[in-house]
Structure formats: C-alpha cells, structure tokens
Amino acid sequence: MQIAVSSKGFLAAADDSGDVKIVNIAQKCLYKRLREAHTSICSSVQFIPWRPWTAITGGLDSKLAVWDFSKGRTLFSIDYGSPELQNSSSSGSTGQCLNPAFVHSVAVSEEGILGGLYKVCAVARGDGAVDVVDLEYELAPAKSKGPSRAGGSTMSSKITDLGDGSNNQCQRRRIHLDYSMGGHTAAVSCVAFSAFREKGKFLVSGGNDASLKVWDWSKGFSPETSSNSELVLDIDVKKKVNWLCTAPTDSDNLIVCDTSKVVKVYNFP
C-alpha cells in the first residue's frame, strides 16, 4: 500500500497481508519481515528519522504500531478500535462519521521542528479524526510515565491523556482533532506536516469529505487550558482527496491529488 526509504538505506513496503517487508537497498535483499502486529491490510509505513532503526505502521485493523525493525519486534501499539478509545473519541463529537477508525495514513515529523520541542506522528483515521501522538513519550520506559502507564506495550491510553480538552491537569501526550473542532465529516485519507514557513508548524489533512484542513496543531500539547489546537484553514476541493503534500517554496503551496484527473496546487495565504 505504501513504501518509505530510510537514511540508512532501507526500504519499507506495506502490503495487503498486514506484513511489512524491510529491504536492504544496497544489497538488494530482504532484511526483515515485520509481522503479527496487523490482522488486516497494512496501509501505511514510515521510518522515524531521529530513531534510525525504528519504523511506524498503520493498518485497516485500526492499529498503529511502532517497531524496532532491526529485531523485528513491536515497541508499542495503539488500537483505535478498542472500546476505551472509541468511547473517548466519540464524546462531544456530534456529526462525526461512524466508519471504523482505520489508519489510512501516518506522517512523522522531522527532527528539530518547532525548536526541537516535539517528536510526534500524525494519524489519519477512517472515522474522520486526526490524532497526533507524542512518540518519545510512548517510547519512554514505562517507569518514567508513572503507575498509570506501566504494564505492557499495547497502549490503551487513559482519556485524560488524549488532549481533547477534557482534562488539562498534565502535559498532553496525544491530541485528537475531530468534527467538534471543525474537522472532517468522513474518513481522513492522508496527513502531512508542512514543509513551508516554520517547518512542521502546520498539519494538513485531506479526506473523503472533499475537504482540506490546515491545523495549528502544537497548541494542543500545551498544559494551559486556554491553548488548544486550532483549525486555521478549510478548503473545499470538490473531490475526495487521495493524497497531498506541501512544498518548501516561497509560495507556500499545498499539492493535492484527488479523484479528478487534475493535480491541484493551493497557495497557503
């Protein structure tokens, strides 16, 4: 479904079996096969640039998994289809689509964005939501997270950690961007961090509701009650969005591939 290339010369390919093949490009051979984390199609794979032996995958089983691909094992996973996360995501989201929370796309931030404060990934979900996950927190040893996070690698996060505005007593570790914040009303097909202006400041999402959303996402990680992620731009592209990217040019372009035969370029104002 998707391929990615790492700085160490590996290629990762996600496939319909749910497996991910890691290929050594220089030696032109299979290096490792990542399996058993996904029970359905593996739709997305990315390498984590500041952890060169780590990859992240998402699937149509509603799971997100982070791997040490040198050893072929998962470091942690999130099941967006679990009852706990389903209930926390649906609260206060009247109008949210009722599709399963399949993971359609994953974007990983570059190292050093926004002054090096954030090392995150964004997750495009089939239920219309976009999640942003603090990867370094999830990858930290369980003992450093306190008693509520210890005990197993499969994450079933407490609602108070989701950063959806329901609790601001501690630094948020995940934020949830949905319909209640002006987000998508159908499945989100793709996400990307901005390459223009201050790199990584904006998160762009596109969906089957034929819309393009631009988020000032990092505000949602602030522990201050007055700071929340903000939708700064909403574009009606008339067609379902299949893929998008941004260009680091003076014109601040958003490049969109939709279900039409035309590639569209939008200028971020």
What does this structure look like?
The protein has 269 residues and is mainly β. The chain has a domain at 80-267. Helix content is 5%, strand content 41%. The protein has a 5-stranded mixed β-sheet, with no helix packed on it. A 4-stranded antiparallel β-sheet has the order 1-2-3-4, with no helix packed on it. A hairpin with a 4-residue loop joins β7 and β8. The longest helix has 8 residues, at 83-90.
DSSP strand count = 20
Shape: globular
Q: Widest sheet: strand order? A: 5-6-7-8-12
Distance between the termini: 33 Å
SSE string: EEEEEEEEHEEEHEEEEEEEEE
Provide key terms for this protein.
single chain; 269 residues; mainly beta; four-stranded antiparallel beta sheet; 2 helices; 5% helix; 41% strand; globular
What does the secondary structure layout of this molecule look like, with pairings?
Blueprint: E1 3-5, E2 10-14, E3 20-24, E4 29-34, E5 42-47, E6 54-59, E7 63-68, E8 73-79, H1 83-90, E9 103-108, E10 120-125, E11 130-134, H2 135-139, E12 154-155, E13 174-177, E14 188-193, E15 202-207, E16 211-216, E17 230-236, E18 241-247, E19 253-258, E20 263-267
